[in-house]
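Reader question, answered in our methods column.
A reader sent in the components of a multi-part assembly and asked whether the whole thing could be modeled at once rather than chain by chain. We filled in our standard form and ran it. Here is what they sent:
COMPLEX SIZE: four components
ENTRIES:
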Amino acid sequence: MVSERSLDVLRVIVQDYVASREPVGSKSIVERHAFGVSAATIRNDMALLEEEELITAPHTSSGRIPTDKGYRVFVDQLADLRPLSSAQRQAIETFLGHATDLDEVLVRTVRLLSQLTHQVALVQYPSLGRAHVRHVELVPLSATRLMIVLITDTARVEQRHIDVHGELDAEFLGEVRARLNTALSGLGLADAAGALNAFVSEFHPSRREFVTDIVESVREQVAANRSDKLVMAGAANLALTADDFGGSIFPVLEAIEQQVTLLKLFGEMEPDHHGLSTSIGSENASFGLAEASVLASGYTSSGGEFARLGVLGPTRMDYPNHMAAVRAVARYLSRLLGED
Amino acid sequence: MVSERSLDVLRVIVQDYVASREPVGSKSIVERHAFGVSAATIRNDMALLEEEELITAPHTSSGRIPTDKGYRVFVDQLADLRPLSSAQRQAIETFLGHATDLDEVLVRTVRLLSQLTHQVALVQYPSLGRAHVRHVELVPLSATRLMIVLITDTARVEQRHIDVHGELDAEFLGEVRARLNTALSGLGLADAAGALNAFVSEFHPSRREFVTDIVESVREQVAANRSDKLVMAGAANLALTADDFGGSIFPVLEAIEQQVTLLKLFGEMEPDHHGLSTSIGSENASFGLAEASVLASGYTSSGGEFARLGVLGPTRMDYPNHMAAVRAVARYLSRLLGED
DNA sequence: ATTGGCAGTCCGGAGAGTTGAGTGCCAGCG
DNA sequence: CGCTGGCACTCAACTCTCCGGACTGCCAAT
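And here is the structure of the entire assembly that came back:
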C-alpha cells in the first residue's frame, strides 16, 4: 500500500525532475519542500515508491526519476491543471482572432499551441461529417483530362483529376455538370453517394462509360475523409529536447512526417473525465514512440464534426501546464468553429 | 597559383572527407588513390591549398578538411555529375507515374527527392502564371459569412472566406455569381484584375458595398501567388546528420518550418550553366544556415510557369550525386507537368 | 513511525601518461 | 626545379587513476 505522503513525494519528484532534468534525492526534497519530516523518512517513502515501480534509480546511489508508470499516476491522480496565465489567454485571443478560412485557422492554432508548450503541436482536420454538397464543377484540363471540384457548405473544397475515356465534349460536359448539380446540390454527403448510384442510368448507353468515370471520382471525393490529415508545427522544438529522446530524434521526426502513425495513435486514445487524453512513454511503444508522450483533446466544429488536437513531446514534460494549454486551445477552437 | 595536381588533391580530399566524415591526411591519400607521388609531395600540394584557403586543419597536425571555399571550387570545377543508376531512374518513373492532381504530384516529388538523397527535399509551388479563370463560386457559410472559390484552367483551386456587410440574400448572390462568371470566365489572371475594376459600378449603389467585399476578395485571389508555398519532406534525415550542424539542428528545423527564409534563399540563387543552383555553407549565413548547403533547380509547368525544387543538407554532402538527382527530378517533373 | 548516524556505492571530473596520426621542414637526389 | 625520405614535433584522443560529492540502505535509538 502506498501512503498519502508517498504520493506527495512522487508528486514533487516528478515536478522537480521535470524542472531540473536531474535525478531527485531525498535531501533536496526536504530542502525544497516543507514536508516536516526528515530525509530518512523520505527515503523510506521512496523505497516504497520504488517497490511499486513508480520511480527508479539510474544507478545505485543517485537520486530517483519517475518511471512511465510513475508519470501515469502523476497525471491521473496528482496533477492539477493549472489555469493559463492571462498573458497566455490573451495570446490565444489575438492569435486566433482574425482568420480567413479553415486552413488558416488550423495553421494558426497549431502554431499557437506549439508556442504555448514549446513542443510539437498537432491538429487533425475535422471530418466531413454532416456537410452538404454545395456545388460540383468540372474543368477540362486537356483533351482527355478533367478536374473535378467538389464544394461543400462547410468550407471545404476537394479536387481531383482524372483521365476520361474518349474525347471531352464541351457541350456534353456542360450537360453533365448541370445534371450533376441538380442531382446532388444540397444533399448530405451520405445521401449524395446514394444519389450517384441512380445517376449514370439517366444517360444514353453510349455515354455511360464517360459519365461513369466522372461519377466514380465524385463518389471518391464524397467518401474521402479529410480527417486523415494533420497540420503540424514546432518540430524545431524537438531539437531542443533531443537528449530526452535517447539520443536520436530520428524516429520521432519520422513519425511526425508519416502522419499515419500519429493518426492511428490519436484514434486509439481514450479521453479521461476532463476530455483530455494522455499517452505516456512506453504506452506508445507500438508506434515507435517509446520515449514520447502525447496529450490530446477533441474539438468540434459546426455540424458536430469531431477531430483531435494535441502536443507531442518527451516523456519528461510539464504535464499540468501542457494539459491546460491543450484543453484551452481545444475549447477556444471549438467555439471559433462552432459559431460560424 | 594552384597546380593541376593540387586540384586533384582537393577533389579527393572532398570525396574522402564526405565519405568518411574524418579529416584526410596525406598518407591516406597516397594509399587510396594512385597519384604516383609520395606523401611528402602531397603535403606540399596541401600546403598550397591551405594557403589558398581551400582546405583547413581542424587542429595543428591532423588531416585536412575542405573549407566552404574549397567546396565551392569543387562544385564549380571538379564535380562530374554522375548519371543516376538505372534503379534510381526507375524509382522516379514508378514514384511519379500515376498522380491525380498537382498537390499529389508535388508531394510525391518531394518524397522521392528526399529518398534519393537522404536529405531534406523542397519543392516550391508553381506560380499562377498564365492561368485563366475558369469559374468563380460563391458559397454562403452563414448569414454573414461567404466562401469564395476561384478555379483556374491550370488545375488550381483558391479559396477564401470573408465576412460581408449586411445579410446574405440568396437570390442576389446568384445574380452576382452569374455576372462574375460572365465577366471573368476565360480571362487571364492579369486581365481579370482589370475587369474587376469596372465590375462594381454595374450594380445599384445600395448594393455596392456588398459587391465590393466580394470583388476585393476575388481580386486578392487573382493576385495571390502560390509560389510562396513550399512542400517539404525528409526532415527526419536531419537527425541523422545532426553532428554536421554544429551540434544543434534547431535553426535548420526552424528555417524549414518558417518557409519564408527558404523561399527568399531560393529566390536569390542564380543557376549555373547546367541550370543548377548551389549555395554552400557560409554563403547562406545571412539566412541562419551557415552550416547547410542548398542545391536547387528550376522546373516549369504548363503555361511556362516557373518554380524551384531542391535539397537542403549539411555542407558536407555528396554534391555530385545530389546535384544529379535534383537535376533529374526537375527534368522529369517539368516533363510531367508540361504534357498535361 | 520517525530519526540521526554511518558505512558503502557509484558517477563524474581532474590530472598524468601514452599512443598514434599527421604535419612541417630540410637536405639530398634525379 | 620538383620530388623524396627522414626526422622532430604537435596535438587530440584514449586510458588509468584518484578523489570529492551526492546518495542510498540499514540500524539502533527515540
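What stands out: The mean pLDDT of chain B is 88. Residues 37-41, 44, 58-62 of chain B lie near DNA strand D (CB under 10 Å from a C1').
Send us your own complexes using the same form.
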